[in-house]
C-alpha cells in the first residue's frame, strides 16, 4: 500500500539510539532507547469515559473554526470512532461529502471533518503531502481542492 511503512516505529528507535542524538538530547549514552517499551514497562490501557465532544461543541458555539481529521488506517483512534464523535455533535451538514484526496464534511458553525486516505495515527508521517494540503486549506479557511 502506497504511503504505508510497517517498519516506521523502528526508525524512531534507530534515531534515538544514535550517539549524536543522545548527546544533543542530553540523554544517557550507550543506552538502548525504545520508542515505546514493549517488555520493560507493562502497559495497561483502559478506555475511560472522557470525551472531547463537549469541548468541541463549546468551541464551535464560540465561533472557532474546528477541523477534525483521521487517517483511515489509524488503529489507535479509528475513523469509525471519530465519525461517531462527530455525529454526537448533532451539527447540520452544510457541505455534503465530496472527494478531494479523501472524504470530508463541512458542518454548521465552522466545524469540518476530513479523513486522510492511506494514513495511520500520525497523518503527516504517513501522508505528508495530503497533511500539508489539509493544513493549508484550514489556514486559508477553505475546503481542500476537489
Automatic annotation (TrEMBL):
Keywords: Disulfide bond, Glycoprotein, Signal, Zymogen
GO cellular component: vacuole
Family recorded in the similarity comment: Belongs to the peptidase S10 family.
Keyword rRNA-binding: no
Gene Ontology MF, one: serine-type carboxypeptidase activity
GO biological process, one term: proteolysis
Naturally occurring in which organism (per UniProt): Aegilops tauschii subsp. strangulata
Record protein name field: Uncharacterized protein
InterPro entries documented for this protein: AB_hydrolase_fold (IPR029058), Peptidase_S10 (IPR001563), Ser_caboxypep_his_AS (IPR033124)
One Pfam family linked to the record: Peptidase_S10
Amino acid at each position: 500500500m502506497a504511503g504505508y511503512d510497517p517498519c516506521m516505529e523502528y526508525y524512531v528507535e534507530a534515531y534515538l539510539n544514535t550517539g549524536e542524538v543522545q548527546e544533543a538530547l542530553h540523554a544517557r549514552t550507550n543506552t538502548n532507547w525504545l520508542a515505546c517499551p514493549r517488555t520493560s514497562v507493562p502497559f495497561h490501557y483502559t478506555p475511560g469515559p472522557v470525551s472531547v465532544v463537549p469541548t468541541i461543541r463549546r468551541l464551535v458555539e464560540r465561533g472557532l473554526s474546528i477541523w477534525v481529521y483521521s487517517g483511515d488506517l489509524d488503529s489507535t483512534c479509528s475513523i469509525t470512532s471519530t465519525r461517531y464523535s462527530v455525529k454526537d455533535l448533532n451539527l447540520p451538514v452544510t457541505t455534503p461529502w465530496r472527494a478531494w484526496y479523501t472524504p470530508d464534511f463541512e458542518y454548521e458553525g465552522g466545524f469540518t471533518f476530513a479523513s486522510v486516505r492511506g494514513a495511520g495515527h500520525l497523518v503527516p508521517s504517513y501522508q505528508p503531502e495530503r497533511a500539508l494540503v489539509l493544513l493549508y486549506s484550514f489556514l486559508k479557511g477553505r475546503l481542500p481542492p476537489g
